[in-house]
Write a structure and sequence with these properties.
By secondary structure, the protein is of the alpha+beta class. It has 21 helices and 10 strands. It has a 5-stranded mixed β-sheet with strand order 2-3-5-4-6, with helices on both faces. Helix 8 (182-197) crosses helix 10 (218-243) and helix 14 packs antiparallel against helix 18 (409-419). The protein is elongated and about 120 Å long. The protein starts with a helix and ends with a strand.
Length: 558
């Protein structure tokens, strides 16, 4: 659901820009330009992958990058704030299928049923139509033949022409159409044939699919309405190009001569009449001859809008973060953990060192009140039983939506995690569990936007000390020091719990520790030790979480 909302919001940004461009230049640019822009908006709504662009508005360090990439911030700063807050509450309760999922599914199904019922009702009417036997119609169709077989049929149950079908298209006209007025008839047939040539019936299906999926987004409704209007405007433009600029007045009169009643048989049929008639007449009367300058301007506008608003900033997909040992009782000193935490959150999650620069720490430590506030905000009761999906979303939202400097939750989190005592029962949770979840969340986002499989990375250390007996006392007499990392993949984020995830990571670390203790007798090379750890990790994998690889970074023998 988070990915869907992200796509919906980034698509809404592009739609808003297109609406503005359309309002300013609908009668200045070729109408095909707007069809390309709507196509870009459709792909933004339906495909989570974005091509990189150096001029993208979603720059890695920009505010809009955080809006597009961090769901917690994204949801809180959009018109869907209420949905976001409800989703966050559902996440805290670890609901497998939240109320908002149910509402979204119900809305999508109802809207899809509306389109399907309208289409089937229309098909029944279309099936009762009869072939047109007028000589003019047969002659016109022969002169304007395309590769697909096209039929011209008539029905007494429609008031205006329309087309339906895209593989075997049908051009349906009213039974009382005046074939004696050959000029108007030619305009009508040419307009509808333009729909058929461009597969507009299929385009309408795609627009309907996007609306069903993003029905909760008001800007997608605007896209559906305006894109359908632009399909009609583009066909009007094609007719004018076919018959010349001198045909504009006659073509406008032909439109006015049609009844201003909308065919309500199917929202998926391409109808000649009715929608935004005033806009169409105005566009026809203001039509200009297509020139190289207008084509160049259209290409420039389309390229600029798509490059800026439909792409990802270069460098948005950051590499996997390295997390330190995740033991519930950390062995690293507070200073080292603080440094790791800063690397994790500052460098990998887009938080620059503005806190060190603008808000230098005034004290070394924290108050009990600050500690209690932080734990209340970041540690939900029974978190170990929460699903990874719910917990990771909760943590990401909590830490990314708060940008209040020294008074913010993030700064407090960094302060407490830096100075918390190793013996504190929450030390492992703050230093390890939370950063691990942030790493998994960011890796998943990077995977979505890059289109490439990316797995979260976990780094740890292990030490095996050999002792010697010195007159009854045990003294260190050498040992091994290991630095390693491994990647894993969450296979079922809805059923895998935080406790199970942590247990898996602990088991891998224990396997590394056991291998290291045995290593004192074996004397393996780094490559051999890496192969042994890889085998051990894969044996610990299960249907919810997998082990995807490891690397020995450093193996020192003393």
């Amino acid at each position: 659901m988070d990915v869907l909302v992200k796509m919906s919001v980034s698509g809404a940004v592009l739609i808003a820009v297109i609406v503005i461009v359309r309002a300013l230049a609908v009668n200045r640019l070729p109408k095909k330009a707007f069809l390309w822009l709507w196509a870009a908006a459709f792909f933004c709504l339906m495909i989570p992958v974005r091509l990189p662009s150096p001029i993208s508005v979603y720059r890695p360090s920009g505010q809009l990058e955080r809006l597009a990439v961090r769901p917690g911030l994204l949801l809180s700063e959009t018109a869907g704030q209420a949905v976001s807050e409800a989703s966050g509450a559902a996440a805290v309760m670890a609901s497998h299928l939240s109320v908002w999922h149910g509402i979204w599914i119900a809305g999508a199904v109802l809207l899809a049923a509306f389109f399907l019922v309208g289409h089937l009702r229309g098909r029944r009417v279309y099936s009762e139509s009869l072939p047109v036997e007028q000589p003019f119609a047969r002659t016109w169709l022969e002169e304007n033949r395309i590769r697909r077989p096209v039929q011209i049929r008539y029905s007494d149950r429609i008031e205006s022409p329309l087309t339906y079908g895209f593989l075997w298209p049908v051009l349906l006209v009213p039974a009382d159409m005046d074939w004696a007025d050959e000029e108007t008839a030619a305009f009508i047939l040419s307009h509808e044939m333009s729909h058929i040539r461009r597969f507009d019936a299929f385009t309408k299906w795609l627009l309907a699919a996007a609306l069903c999926i993003h029905w909760f987004n008001p800007l997608v409704w605007a896209m559906y309405i305006l894109a359908n209007r632009d399909l009609e405007l583009a066909c009007d433009e094609a007719v004018i190009r076919q018959y010349g600029m001198q045909a504009c007045p006659s073509y406008a009169l032909a439109l006015l001569g049609m009844e201003e009643k909308r065919n309500r048989l199917s929202p998926l049929a391409s109808s000649f009449s009715k929608s935004a008639l005033k806009e169409r007449i105005e566009a026809i009367m203001k039509a200009k001859k297509l020139t190289k300058g207008s084509i160049a301007a259209a290409l420039l506008v389309v390229a600029a809008v798509i490059s800026i608003f439909a792409t990802a900033g270069i460098g948005s997909n950051r590499p996997a973060v390295r997390i330190e040992n995740m033991d519930k009782e950390p062995v690293a000193e507070a200073e080292e953990n603080s440094h790791t935490l800063k690397n994790t959150l500052y460098q990998e999650y887009g938080w620059e060192d503005r806190y060190d620069r603008d808000y230098p720490m005034e004290k070394e430590g924290y108050t009990q009140e600050e500690y209690d506030k932080l734990m209340k905000a970041l540690k939900p009761e029974g978190y170990e039983e929460m699903s990874i999906a719910a917990f990771n979303s909760f943590i990401n939202k909590a830490l990314t939506e708060d940008e209040k400097g020294r008074d913010g939750l993030y700064y407090l989190f960094e302060q407490v995690a830096s100075y918390i005592e190793n013996t504190d029962p929450n030390a492992g949770y703050l230093r390890n569990t939370i950063p691990a979840s942030l790493e998994e969340y960011q890796t998943r986002l990077n995977e979505v936007y890059s289109g490439k499989q990316m797995d979260p990375q976990f780094s740890a250390t292990a030490e095996a000390v050999r002792t010697a007996d010195v007159f009854g006392d045990a003294y260190p007499a050498g040992g091994l020091w290991l630095e390693y990392s491994f990647t894993y993949r969450i296979l079922d984020q809805d059923s895998l719990t935080v406790g199970e995830r942590d247990a898996f990571l602990q088991q891998v670390m224990q396997a590394a520790q056991t291998l290291l203790e045995e290593e004192q007798e074996q004397g393996h090379t780094e490559q051999e030790f890496q192969a042994l750890l890889d085998t051990a990790g894969k044996e610990l994998a299960n249907e919810k979480i997998g082990f995807t690889g490891c690397e020995v970074n450093y193996l020192e023998k003393e």
